[in-house]
């Protein structure tokens, strides 16, 4: 026979837990809604943090050798901008130098494709090709309004992208200049326990974000080397620009790899013919499969402390929910969530019962040298420095 008192207690506990879960879900929904409204500010901030993880090591080197923080940050920012422009020019100039040959190759490639389509097994006649072209032309004319609106949307996207890049560069400069002062300033602004918890989580999240960017750069470099070697063996021209494009595109999940692979296949088709284009396509598919299923999960799981399956699931979920941006941010967001969860679990865990009560705990981190503790440049932009200074 069921006990009425135990049944009421179980129902009361279930109702209380259900109400708490509903409140947590409501708070999560409100937080996501607020983030969505503030996305125009958060997106440049995220981009700036990602770039800062790459540019902080040279800035730290300059600051350790006596450079003023503003001068070091300005030098590294200008150097990064010149490197980015040089990369774009390094891709564009060889392509522009062979633009005439590329145009002639496109015409020849279209002709070879038409000859191939007119033969077996397709046996498509010239009349059928002409009708197909007329159909495409009429549909394009009928959808001129949609194309115009799409072009306006594309212009708006490009404009927003340029604004995001400019804001990200300015934020990167301020992170490099005043970053080590943020955590001490934050400690003075937060009350009670938060003054310890938030800076600790911020420092761990910064280290995790740096691991993500380094692993992504390693994956892009591996892709560029493998695909570049394959293109060189096949004899495709513009190997170096295509390899650089592959490395840069690796930082944009899914779309970047597809775009870089498409460009490589088109150039192989134009200059070398359909056979070499198919070989290049096979090389790219093999490298991308190795990257997506082996290299990227292994590198990111090591650097971020996440299992390879978690990385794959995070990218899939982020892409399905938020598209390209979701795919780009899925892995670092998952890693930061893991950092927060691990910290909360540490704080909520009971002390080890096997530890001696009077034993002095061993320090988890070695004590910094005096010059490291007093020098903000010794730490990362988000890991903090000696307290007592506020950001300029």
What do these coordinates show?
It is found in: Cell membrane. There is one protein chain. This protein is mainly α and 392 residues long. It folds into 2 domains: 39-138 and 155-181, no CATH class; 190-350. The protein is 81% helix and 0% strand. The protein is built from 12 helices and no strands. It is globular and about 85 Å long. The N and C termini lie far apart (71 Å). The model is unreliable at 359-377 and 385-392 (pLDDT under 50).
Mean pLDDT, nearest integer?
74
Radius of gyration: 28 Å
Number of domains: 2
Structural class: mainly alpha
Distance between the termini: 71 Å
Specify the overall morphology: globular
The SSE order reads: HHHHHHHHHHHH
In total, the number of strands is 0
Poorly predicted segments? 359-377, 385-392
Question: What fraction, in percent, of the residue positions are helical?
Answer: over 70%
Q: Give the biggest sheet.
A: none
Q: What is the strand content?
A: under 5%
DSSP summary: helix tally: 12
């Amino acid at each position: 026979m069921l006990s009425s008192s135990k049944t009421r207690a179980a129902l009361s506990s279930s109702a209380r837990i259900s109400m708490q879960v509903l409140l947590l879900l409501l708070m999560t929904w409100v937080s996501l809604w607020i983030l969505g409204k503030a996305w125009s500010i958060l997106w440049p901030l995220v981009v700036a943090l990602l770039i800062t993880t790459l540019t902080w090591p040279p800035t730290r080197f300059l600051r350790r050798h006596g450079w003023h923080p503003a001068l070091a940050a300005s030098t590294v920012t200008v150097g990064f901008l010149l490197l980015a422009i040089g990369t774009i020019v390094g891709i564009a100039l060889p392509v522009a130098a062979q633009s005439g040959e590329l145009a002639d190759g496109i015409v020849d490639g279209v002709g070879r494709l038409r000859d191939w389509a007119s033969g077996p097994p397709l046996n498509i006649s010239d009349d059928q090709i002409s009708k197909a072209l007329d159909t495409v032309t009429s549909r394009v004319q009928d959808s001129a309004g949609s194309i115009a609106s799409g072009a306006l949307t594309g212009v708006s996207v490009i404009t927003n992208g340029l604004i995001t890049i400019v804001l990200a560069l300015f934020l990167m400069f301020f992170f490099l200049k005043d970053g080590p002062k943020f955590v001490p300033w934050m400690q003075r602004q937060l009350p009670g326990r938060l003054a310890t918890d938030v800076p600790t989580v911020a420092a761990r999240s910064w280290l995790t974000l740096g691991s993500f960017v380094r692993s992504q750069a390693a994956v892009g470099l591996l892709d560029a080397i493998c695909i570049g070697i394959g293109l060189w063996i096949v004899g495709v021209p513009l190997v170096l620009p295509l390899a650089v494009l592959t490395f840069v595109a690796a930082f944009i999940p899914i779309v970047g790899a597809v775009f870089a692979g498409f460009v490589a296949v088109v150039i192989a088709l134009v200059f070398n013919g359909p056979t070499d284009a198919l070989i290049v396509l096979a090389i790219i598919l093999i490298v991308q499969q190795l990257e997506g299923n082996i290299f990227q999960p292994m590198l990111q799981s090591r650097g971020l402390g996440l299992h390879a399956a978690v990385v794959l699931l995070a990218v899939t979920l982020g892409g399905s929910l938020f598209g390209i941006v979701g795919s780009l941010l899925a892995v670092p967001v998952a890693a930061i969530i893991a950092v927060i969860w691990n910290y909360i679990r540490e704080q909520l865990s009971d002390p080890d019962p096997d530890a001696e009560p009077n034993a002095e705990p061993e320090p988890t981190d070695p004590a910094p040298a005096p010059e490291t503790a007093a020098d903000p440049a010794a730490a990362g932009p988000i890991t903090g420095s000696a307290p007592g200074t506020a950001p300029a």
